[in-house]
């Protein structure tokens, strides 16, 4: 692994270890999730100007009005997704920087990732290819619509907040599948776990959160 991927100073392995210790203190228990976060170079998923802050437990800007999610939230959502039967095929709504995508790709067989902003999608594709993560398929598209042609999915994870849960995403869940997403208006968002049982959908509140909104359409 190159110096860039290993990191130095504020992006060093010691700094990553401190982040993992903090996540443990905040209640993250899944050792596989913690190991992946420890070994994934978050600093390469943001501009070099702010990379010294990469292993702080905070969301950071990545341009285009978007953010790279707080590591605790990435860990919390991933841990919830893996609980019980491990999903093999996962749909991610909002590729963004590619960091959550990288974490997922090291823990499940197949990741299908949708991003509406073409510049972010291309940047993420290059970064993830540089990490030799090749079990990811990408789509420039509107996340509200999901990826029907590739469904159903055993799990869906959404990294931006719709005001209401999109019906199309519920329909693309396999029976027994999980949808993890923030939902609600700005200032009143809830992180939800939705589980499908036949035609019934059971909701569970996981946390209070603050995400950028899930917007419609495509930005070339």
Q: How would you sum up this structure, described in words?
A:
- With 220 residues, the chain is α/β, with parallel strands linked by helices.
- The chain has a domain at 58-209: Vaccinia Virus protein VP39 (Rossmann fold, 3-Layer(aba) Sandwich).
- It contains 7 helices and 9 strands.
- The strands form 2 sheets. A 7-stranded mixed sheet has the order 5-4-3-6-7-8-9. Strands 1-2 form a two-stranded antiparallel ribbon.
- α2 packs antiparallel against α3 (31-39).
- The longest helix has 13 residues, at 13-25.
- The chain is globular.
- It starts with a helix and ends in an 11-residue tail after the last strand.
Produce the secondary structure layout.
Elements: H1 3-6, H2 13-25, H3 31-39, E1 60-63, E2 66-68, H4 71-82, E3 89-93, H5 99-105, E4 110-115, H6 118-130, E5 136-140, E6 153-158, H7 167-171, E7 173-183, E8 189-197, E9 200-209
Parallel strand pairs: 3-4, 3-6, 4-5, 6-7
Antiparallel strand pairs: 1-2, 7-8, 8-9
How would you sum up this structure in a few lines?
It contains 7 helices and 9 strands; from the N terminus they run H-H-H-E-E-H-E-H-E-H-E-E-H-E-E-E. The chain has 220 residues and is of the alpha/beta class.
Main sheet attributes: strand count, strand direction, barrel closure: 7 strands, mixed
Tell me the strand percentage band.
25-35%
Structural class by secondary-structure content: alpha/beta
Q: What is the count of helical runs?
A: 7
CA distance, first residue to last residue: 33 Å
CATH third-tier fold name of the domain at 58-209: Rossmann fold
Radius of gyration: 16 Å
SSE string: HHHEEHEHEHEEHEEE
Overall CATH architecture of the domain at 58-209: 3-Layer(aba) Sandwich
Q: What is the residue-averaged pLDDT?
A: 93
- Tally of extended strands? 9
Q: Helix fraction?
A: 25-40%
């Amino acid at each position: 692994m190159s110096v860039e991927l290993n990191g130095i100073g504020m992006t060093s392995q010691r700094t990553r270890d401190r982040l993992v210790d903090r996540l443990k203190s905040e209640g993250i228990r899944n050792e596989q999730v913690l190991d992946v976060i420890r070994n994934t170079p978050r600093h390469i998923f943001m501009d070099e100007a702010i990379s010294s802050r990469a292993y702080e437990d905070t969301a950071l800007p990545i341009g285009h009005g978007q953010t790279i999610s707080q590591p605790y939230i990435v860990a919390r959502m991933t841990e919830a997704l893996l609980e019980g039967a491990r999903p093999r095929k996962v749909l991610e709504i909002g590729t963004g920087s590619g960091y959550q995508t990288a974490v997922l790709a090291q823990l499940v067989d197949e990741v299908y990732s949708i991003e509406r902003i073409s510049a972010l999608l291309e940047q993420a594709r290059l970064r993830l290819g540089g990490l030799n993560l090749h079990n990811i398929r990408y789509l420039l598209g509107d996340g509200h619509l999901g990826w029907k042609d590739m469904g159903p999915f055993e799990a869906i994870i959404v990294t931006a907040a719709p005001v209401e849960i999109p019906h199309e995403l519920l329909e693309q869940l396999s029976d027994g599948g999980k949808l993890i997403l923030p939902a609600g208006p700005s200032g009143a968002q809830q992180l939800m776990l939705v589980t499908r049982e036949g035609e019934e959908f059971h909701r569970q509140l996981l946390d209070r959160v603050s995400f950028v909104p899930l917007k419609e359409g495509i930005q070339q």
